[in-house]
Design a protein that fits this description.
Elements lengths: L1 H6 L2 H28 L6 H32 L12 H27 L5 H34 L5 H12 L1 H17 L1
Length: 189
């Protein structure tokens, strides 16, 4: 899987992570608004099922982005110069933490919100976990940018060397058009 995503063309990744989900979400939203426009009653079960479909679409296509981050960060490690040591164990911990949090959130916390069983103490747990998951994802973007630039420059890099790549990865639908051709070039060498 690593090699497949590293060799993928930029437009493949764009279509998989942004194009298809956007079209599917437009379709579902159009269905919801059409029912509202013709004054058809929209039941809560129907809204719940539409919400679940949107969540599933988002998760399915976001997982491709996560696999891409993993592929760049771990798949390019063999091309990192031997003089540079990147902390892949820390990356792996920070990579899997938001995934575990999202699974727990979707299986335990989200259903309680949908059933209107909201316990105020739940927010004391959710907010720090959510903030930590956000930190973990930002760290993963940082590590991916640092790994990419280390391989590209073949030396130890400093924050100024990979700051642009960090923002390009963060704004993936735009950044994929710039970063992926450079990754393709590195992989093909």
């Amino acid at each position: 899987m690593n090699n497949l995503l590293l060799k993928a063309k930029h437009w493949h990744l764009f279509i998989l992570t942004f194009g298809i989900p956007l079209i599917l979400q437009f379709f579902i939203m159009a269905r919801i608004f059409t029912k509202a426009f013709i004054n058809e009653e929209i039941s809560t079960t129907n809204m719940f099922s539409n919400s679940m479909v949107l969540i599933i679409i988002t998760l399915a296509f976001s997982s491709i982005l996560l696999f891409w981050i993993w592929s760049v960060s771990i798949g390019l490690q063999k091309k990192v110069p031997e003089t540079v040591k990147l902390k892949t164990n820390r990356f792996k911990f920070f990579f899997f933490t938001p995934i575990v949090y999202m699974i727990i959130y979707l299986t335990i916390i989200f259903p309680s919100f949908m059933n209107s069983n909201i316990n105020p103490m739940l927010f004391l747990i959710i907010i720090p976990l959510h903030l930590f998951a956000m930190f973990c994802m930002i760290y993963c973007l940082y590590f991916t940018a640092k790994t990419f630039r280390t391989v590209e420059l073949q030396r130890e890099v400093h924050s100024g060397d990979y700051l642009g790549e960090f923002f390009l990865i963060w704004l993936f639908p735009i950044g994929v058009w710039i970063i992926q051709p450079r990754i393709n070039k590195i992989v093909n060498e």
